[in-house]
């Protein structure tokens, strides 16, 4: 059996009276590029927060890298790029190098200092996202797409086995969105990095993701992207609760 | 002043204390400014004032001289920092509400303690606006020890403090104990304020923590550069402010802050000027 990177069993969560998640089962295996889609308010971000331990589910169990959530401590094996990543303080006086090195803080640990081999790792992560020209530039002066690449590098520098991205393309212009997904695809294939990508951009997965899960309170679809593409407009509309136009991206 | 500096021990103490304060105030101030917590320094300095006036009251009424007002100031400042943190949790979504509560509470208590001690005396005036002659031998050693402690702790937790300042959510998710690091940070801030008060005074201590940083941020690209530049600017302000304060018989708090503001104006116009040049060129 392929090993599970994330396994959710019967997750339920409510904000007060409002049920947000119900009976969510999800199994993400190593090497998958999972696209998590669904309507706004369908519980995508809540589910991510639960996976990251920022929220506790009302019921159900979570396994991260085969360990039950309450015993899981290796947070540096999981990288996270937040939706909020592009709402950071743009006037913060930090270089790309400094921001990426923050990704190592927890891995290095308390009472230990940043050493030369850590520097190598930071530079390597910056190269990986193709930002080496900007290493010592101020992060606030870069474009949205470039900043997002830097945040990916920050997540990658600790060499995680799983990268979770919550709507990472919000605020990035269209041309750069494509390049961004190419980068994720490369990381998935070349570095065998498992990816969980939250997006409402339903067209993208058909090209890059290997698997798709549709969340609207509960999972309405969970399978590989070919099967997702085969869904009819009618079926999609049922998942979303409103009419949906299936958009297929052509990149030729 | 140079000749006097060699001649009078108290001046030497003041000068060295000033140099130390010129390091620790902007060092911590950089984190404070980028986290948009500049006003925290104001609130804590007013609580420190309450502590100092409490110490002065004890000195006067009970004739206990073992309790240096510097210590009672430090204690109040740290307690104030903890209370601000507690209030932040009581009023979720109103992150800054603790600051005016603690600030006014500090001023209120100070007024009561000062009244009980039968009003202003010269000592209190020194604490308010700073003094070139107020640093005693005992203060001097306390400040050296506190400053070394503060610098060491920031050196050890530099990467955690920076990571937390930039992105609290990322810090938490990556496994850093954000709450504990934040707590450590505000306790350090409280200590820096208590220590700096001898030189710049209660009312102007927050200026030394924010003005040099504001100047440095205009010019620097990196966080490290911001820290280094803000320390350089603060030292210039302290040295020029202390010397001119001594010769003009003005409390150094005033002169130091005015020099810091001049540096700030200069850094703003330098940036403007280079921007115009780059546009023309």
TrEMBL record, chain A:
Keywords: ATP-binding, Nucleotide-binding, Transport. Transmembrane segments: none annotated. Residues 6-248 form the ABC transporter domain. InterPro entries: AAA+_ATPase, ABC_transporter-like_ATP-bd, ABC_transporter-like_CS, Metal_Ion_Import_ABC, P-loop_NTPase. One of its GO terms (molecular function) is ATP hydrolysis activity. It comes from the Bacteria. Belongs to the ABC transporter superfamily. This is Zinc ABC transporter ATP-binding protein.
TrEMBL record, chain B:
It is found in: Cell membrane; Membrane. CDD domains: TM_ABC_iron-siderophores_like. Keywords: Membrane, Transmembrane, Transmembrane helix, Transport. The keyword NADP does not apply. The chain crosses the membrane at residues 15-34, 39-58, 70-87, 99-120, 140-158, 183-207, 227-248, 255-277. GO terms for biological process: response to zinc ion; transmembrane transport. Pfam families: ABC-3. It is a multi-pass membrane protein. It comes from the Bacteria. Gene3D superfamilies: ABC transporter involved in vitamin B12 uptake, BtuC. Belongs to the ABC-3 integral membrane protein family. This is Metal ABC transporter permease. The lineage of its organism: Bacteria, Bacillati, Bacillota, Bacilli, Bacillales.
């Amino acid at each position: 059996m392929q090993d599970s990177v994330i396994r959710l069993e019967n997750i339920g969560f409510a904000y007060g009276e409002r049920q947000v998640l119900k009976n969510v089962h999800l199994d993400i295996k190593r090497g998958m590029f999972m696209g998590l889609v669904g309507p706004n308010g369908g519980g995508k971000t809540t589910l991510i927060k639960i996976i990251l331990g920022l929220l506790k589910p009302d019921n159900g169990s979570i396994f991260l890298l085969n360990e039950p959530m309450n015993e899981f401590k290796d947070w540096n094996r999981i990288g996270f790029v937040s939706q909020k990543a592009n709402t950071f303080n743009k006037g913060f006086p930090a270089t790309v190098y400094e921001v990426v090195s923050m990704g190592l803080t927890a891995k290095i640990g308390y009472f230990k200092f940043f050493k030369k081999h850590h520097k190598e790792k930071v530079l390597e992560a910056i190269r990986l996202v193709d930002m080496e020209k900007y290493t010592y530039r101020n992060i606030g002066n870069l474009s949205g797409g470039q900043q997002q690449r830097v945040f990916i590098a920050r997540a990658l520098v600790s060499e995680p086995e799983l990268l979770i991205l919550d709507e990472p393309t919000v605020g990035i212009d269209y041309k750069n969105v494509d390049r961004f997904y190419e980068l994720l695809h490369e990381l998935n294939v070349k570095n065998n990095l498992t990816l969980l990508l939250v997006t409402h951009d339903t067209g993208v997965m058909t090209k890059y993701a290997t698997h798709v899960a549709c969340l609207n309170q509960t999972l309405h679809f969970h399978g590989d992207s070919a099967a997702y593409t085969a869904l009819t407009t009618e079926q999609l509309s049922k998942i979303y609760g409103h009419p949906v136009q299936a958009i297929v991206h052509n990149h030729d | 002043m140079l000749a006097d500096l060699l001649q009078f021990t108290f001046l030497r103490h003041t000068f060295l204390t000033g140099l130390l304060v010129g390091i620790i105030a902007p060092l911590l101030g950089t984190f404070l400014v980028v986290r948009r917590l500049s006003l925290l320094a104001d609130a804590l300095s007013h609580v420190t004032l309450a502590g100092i006036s409490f110490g002065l009251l004890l000195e006067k009424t009970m004739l206990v001289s073992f309790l240096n007002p510097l210590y009672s100031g430090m204690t109040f400042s740290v307690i104030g920092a903890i209370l601000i943190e507690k209030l932040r949790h009581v009023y979720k979504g109103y992150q800054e509400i603790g600051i005016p509560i603690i600030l006014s509470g500090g001023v209120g208590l100070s007024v009561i303690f000062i009244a009980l001690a039968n009003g202003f005396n010269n000592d209190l005036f020194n604490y308010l606006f700073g003094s070139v002659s107020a640093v005693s031998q005992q203060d001097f050693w306390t400040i050296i020890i506190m400053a070394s402690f503060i610098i060491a702790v920031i050196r050890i937790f530099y990467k955690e403090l920076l990571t937390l300042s930039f992105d609290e959510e990322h810090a938490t998710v990556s496994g850093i104990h954000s709450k504990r690091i934040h707590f450590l940070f505000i306790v350090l801030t409280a200590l820096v304020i208590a220590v700096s008060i001898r030189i710049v005074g209660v009312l102007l201590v927050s200026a030394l923590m924010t003005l040099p940083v504001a100047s440095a941020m205009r010019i620097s690209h990196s966080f490290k550069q911001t820290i280094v530049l803000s320390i350089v600017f603060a030292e210039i302000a302290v040295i020029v402010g202390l010397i001119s304060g001594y010769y003009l018989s003005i409390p150094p708090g005033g002169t130091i802050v005015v020099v810091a503001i001049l540096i700030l104006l200069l850094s703003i116009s330098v940036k403007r000027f280079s921007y115009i040049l780059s546009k023309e060129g």
